[in-house]
């Protein structure tokens, strides 16, 4: 940091709040306030100088976005180039919920073939053209014990 930019009188709370809304372009997952990268220091100096010159937070953000793109913001605006960033998590959540629902539905219906599983208290469906196997006999025995 240059000596001249650290001596500029500004509202430190406002400065800290704004620095936490901006992303370090080197570290990417750190805010400007948290980063120790040299570029982050330069950007902090730039923000401090612009605040001292009377610019609003919106004007400072607009300046940085014009220079570095929406990536400099931790919360990029919803627009055509960033809609996937905003919709992606919801799409993944909906896909996961749909997959979970399908798995639960198939288990209730008796497997991926869609054949209905026998209901408790009912009789097992007869197999077409086949004798009842040991699995069916065990199932019938368990059913009688539970009734």
What does this structure look like?
The protein is mainly alpha-helical and 147 residues long. The chain folds into two domains: 3-72, Cytochrome C biogenesis protein (Helicase, Ruva Protein, domain 3), CATH 1.10.8; 83-122 and 131-146, no CATH class. The chain contains six helices and no strands. The relative contact order is 0.08.
Give, in order, the helices and strands: HHHHHH
CATH class of the largest domain: Mainly Alpha
Question: What is the strand tally?
Answer: 0
Nearest-integer average pLDDT: 80
Spatial extent as radius of gyration? 31 Å
User: Ends: how far apart?
Assistant: 81 Å
Number of domains: 2
How would you name the CATH homologous superfamily of the largest domain? Cytochrome C biogenesis protein
Structural class: mainly alpha
- The fraction of residues assigned to DSSP E strands is under 5%
- Characterize the largest beta sheet: strand count, sense, and whether it forms a barrel: none
CATH architecture of the largest domain: Orthogonal Bundle
Uncertain runs are none
What is the count of DSSP helices, taking H or I runs of 4+ residues?
Answer: 6
CATH topology of the largest domain: Helicase, Ruva Protein, domain 3
Fraction of residues in H or I helices:
55-70%
Shape: rod-shaped
